[in-house]
Design brief:
There is one protein chain. This protein has 343 residues and is of the alpha/beta class. It is 52% helix and 13% strand. It has 17 helices and nine strands. Strand 6, helix 13 and strand 7 form a beta-alpha-beta unit. Helix 9 crosses helix 11, helix 12 packs parallel to helix 13 and helix 16 packs parallel to helix 17. The longest helix has 25 residues. The model has no long low-confidence stretch (mean pLDDT 98). The structure holds coproporphyrinogen III. The site of coproporphyrinogen III (CP3) has 22 residues, from strand 3 and strand 4.
């Protein structure tokens, strides 16, 4: 089937569908016993990301079990810093740990030269998926947006207050801008190669966009995302792009108007009526069930899923969660939700 005929691409091209497509962020992951088994076989999480055979396998696991309309490449947003030479380690229970980059001088340790060699297995995974996926399923490639990737690169780990990266971004915007520029270039090249290998849609995850003040949100989230989208469309006209500026509240409206994306992924705090009235005329919306409702399941999950479908399903819409599936999610709740969404 051609990409333009697939449900996810049709929705991103502005079509209102009687049965909206669905997929779930982090649909491949620790809540699935088959994922835990494959991850065990791979050794570490990074070994899994860089093993095309096993990364293909875990990408397909949720599709086989639940029949989502889209598969998202199994990888991580921190492969770009890893590929540019920043030391990265994932520790059990701690998440990612990086050797921090905190000044313009530190940037000289990073280079785009080795990036594509290091991440070549990811492109190979995309090519395998393009060949193996059921014909009606859309393949989504992805990257982190520059601001979110920079938060991990500068803090050296996940952070609550982002004090160190904000000190740099607010105190020395020109210097910090050099890191963002480097990430814009790396991200364009990385996503271009994913599309060349067979990705049909790309999503940019800006998980920490909601940490920024209005001016900084414009400069460090919207502007870099617009530059990336523009450069990708030069090479791939018509490429559908989804942005996820998590937690930005009314900033979603500015993002929808200015970031140059087809789709905007909503976190679970965004009011549905507001999204319908203020965003859906501008872009396709994606979202936004609270992943905790997927842990709870039952009538609480079902009634909220139906409310989302009813309110946003009147316009261009992709059903998703407001953020990723959490590890304690019972797989049978995901199955029940998929049943409702398939109608
Ligand atoms: O199914 C999918 O959605 C595809 C795979 C995917 C992963 N990470 C796999 C992963 C995607 C799209 C991501 C994106 C990602 N990675 C983001 C943006 C989206 C979000 O969730 O906010 C961020 C911020 C990261 C960075 C990252 N990777 C963190 C903070 C962690 C540790 C926290 C955690 O959940 O363990 C990771 C590890 C990670 N990435 C895992 C998976 C399946 C868990 C690793 C494991 O198996 O132990």
């Amino acid at each position: 089937m051609r990409s333009e005929e697939k449900l996810l691409v049709r929705a991103l091209n502005g079509e209102t569908l009687s049965r909206p497509p669905f997929w779930m962020m982090r649909q491949a992951g620790r809540y699935l016993p088959e994922y835990r088994a494959t991850r065990q076989d791979a050794g570490s999480f990074l070994d899994l990301c860089y093993n095309p055979e096993l990364a293909t396998k875990v990408t397909l696991q949720p599709i086989e079990r639940f029949g989502m309309d889209a598969a998202i490449l199994f990888a991580d947003i921190l492969l770009i810093p890893d590929g540019m030479g920043q030391t990265l380690d994932y520790r059990e229970g701690e998440g990612p740990i990086l050797e921090p980059v905190r000044s313009v001088a530190d940037l000289s340790a990073l280079s785009l030269d080795g990036l594509h060699t290091r991440v070549a297995p990811v492109y190979e995974t995309v090519a395998r998926l393009a060949a193996e996926l059921p014909k009606e399923v859309t393949l989504i490639g992805f990257a982190g947006a520059p601001w979110t990737v920079a938060t991990y690169m500068v803090e050296g780990r996940g952070s609550r207050d982002h004090a160190i990266v904000k000190q740099w971004a607010y105190g020395d915007p020109d210097g910090f801008g050099q890191l963002i520029d480097l990430l814009v270039t790396a991200t364009v090249e990385y996503l271009d190669k994913q599309v060349e290998a067979g990705a049909e849609v790309v999503q940019l995850f800006d998980t920490w966009a909601g940490a920024l003040s209005e001016t900084a949100f414009q400069r460090w989230c919207i502007d870099p995302v617009r530059r990336i989208a523009g450069a990708l469309r030069q090479k791939h006209p018509g490429l559908p792009i989804i942005g996820f500026p998590r937690g930005v509240g009314a900033g979603y409206r500015t993002f929808a108007r200015q970031a140059g994306v087809n789709g905007v992924s909503l976190d679970w705090t965004v009011p549905l009526d507001w999204a319908r009235d203020e965003l859906q005329g501008e872009v396709t919306v994606q979202g936004n069930l609270d992943p905790r409702l997927l842990v709870v399941g039952g009538p609480a999950m079902e009634s909220e899923a139906r409310r989302i479908l009813e309110t946003l399903g009147q316009g261009p819409f992709i059903f998703n969660l407001g953020h990723g599936i959490v590890p304690e999610t019972p797989p049978e709740n995901v199955g029940r939700l998929a049943e409702i969404l398939r109608g």
